[in-house]
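Record format v2
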Amino acid sequence: MSIFSKFLELGNSRKSAKVARERLQIVVSYQRTEGGDADFLSKLRHELLSVICKYVKVDRDQVNVQLKRTGSCSVLELNITLPTGAELSIGEPDLKIL
Amino acid sequence: MAKSEAKIIVITSGKGGVGKTTTSAAIAAELAHRGHKTVVVDFDIGLRNLDLIMGCERRVIFDFVNVIQNDANLSQALIRDKREENLFVLPASQTRDKDALTQEGVERILNELKKDFEYIVCDSPAGIERGALMALYFADEAVVVTNPEVSSVRDSDRIIGVLNSKTKRAEQGQEMKKHLLITRYSQYRVQRGEMLSIKDVQEILAIPLLGVIPESTAVLNASNHGIPVTLGNASDAKCAYQDAVACLLGEEPASASQKGWKSKFLGGLRLFSRSPA
C-alpha cells in the first residue's frame, strides 16, 4: 500500500504544473465574474447554504459551489451531498420538490 | 528637438517578491542606455528599496513625499545615475504615513516629470492598497510581472482587473496597453512538468507577452552590487531584459521560445563580446 502511494505521489508531483493550471483556471474565473467582485462566489455559497439549510439538514462542507470556465461558456456547478436518510428539518409540506 | 509626449509605464504585479523592483531598475536602465531620458519612481512608501537596487542608497537626501509636501523641489530629490547620464531615480520616503501619497500630489509630480523625461517608470509596491493604486492610476502602459507560480498568477489576474477599471485611462474609456513579463522562469522545470509554462500563464492572463526572464544567478549578483541587471555583466537575464525593452519600444515581438536571449547570450559568450543592442 505504501509503495502504491509512493508511486501515486511521484505521478502527482510530475503533473504538478497541470494541477496548477487547472486550479488557476477555476480561481481566475471566479475573480472575473460580476465585474471583478472577487467575493461573489463566497456570498453566493453563503446564501445558497442558508436557503438549503431551511429545508434540509446538511453539513456546511457538503455544499460545493464551483464556477468553471471553458472557452466562452461558464458553468455554475452546485453539488450538495445529503446525509444518508436525509433528515428534513421542520415539517414543510413541499419538500418533495427537493 | 521637439520631445514627444512622455510615457508613464507602471511595473506592477499584485504579489510581492516577484521582481517588480528588479524589473523597474532593469527596464529604466535599458531605456536610458538606449538614449531615452528616463526616471524611475519608487512608489513603495515606507519600504523603499529601489535606491538599493539602483545602488544610490547613500545619495538619498530628499524623497517623493518631501516633494509632494513641498519640503523640497523635484530637482533636489532626483538622483542622477552615475553610469547612465539619461537615468534618474526618485526615491520613496521611509515615512510610515501611507496617506502621504495624495492623488493630487502624485499627479502634480508626474506632470512635472513629463516635461523633462521621455519615460517615467513607476515601481509599484505589492498589494492593491493606496501606493499600488497611485502607481498605476496615471499610467499609459503597464508591465505585469508574474512568476510561473499559482499565487503570483492569481494576483496578476487581480491587478489586470484593477488596471482595467481603476486607472485614469479606464475612467476616460481609453485603452491601456498591458504587457506580461514572466520572471524566474525555468525551462528545465517546465519540461519536467513542475512549473507552469509560458503558454499556460499567457493563456490564463490573456495579455500580450513582453518577455521571459529566466531564473538567473545574475539577478541576485546585480542586486548585491546595486547595479541594474541591464547595466551589469553579460548574462541570460540581461539579454532577456534587453529583448523585453526592445519589445516595449515596438522593435521586435517577444520571443516566447526563449531562443532569442539564449542564442544571443551563448553567441555573445562565444565571441567574448555582445553585439550592441
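The longest strand of chain A covers residues 63-70.
Confidence is low (pLDDT under 50) at residues 90-98 of chain A.
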